[in-house]
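Problem 12. The chain below contains 163 residues. Write out its predicted structure in token notation.
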Amino acid sequence: MNAIKRTFAAAMSLSLLTVAGTASADSHAMDGMANHHGMKGHGGMYGMKGHGSKHVGGSSVSGLADMLDAYDTDANGSLSQDEILGARAEQLKTFDADQDGTLSIDEYEALWLDAMRERMVDRFQQHDDDGDGQVTVEEFNEDFQRFIERRDRNGDGVLNSDD
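Solution.
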């Protein structure tokens, strides 16, 4: 029965990491699309922590400013629903390769990968400690050097359901 519990706990952990990664990626996708398509804005869009956002009353001041920068297409300092929807329609149109007004999974993948490129480059640079354009195994593993040690609550040197 312990093996089943451990398998379940591991599966749940992986599921949570996947969900968290997907949510983070999805929230930043618009940021990357805005940058690529000639609209301003970087980091902190939609109030993602760790990118200089200041949360006030449940919303992000930086996130709102980034949205204004990204979607204020007439540059009047105000943001309308029409501007948001128009900019998003243009983003869809850019990746609609067969111009049928919809995105297939392949077209959506191209949109998503384009949007995520800047974040991927940022993450690569975070790993590349010496700035030589190469990520060594040591640099890649740096964040995980003490992973077990930090989470091993019972001190047995492994993670399991007892932790």
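Discussion. Residues 47 and 57 are 12 Å apart (CA to CA). Students who got a different answer should revisit the alignment rule from Section 12.3.
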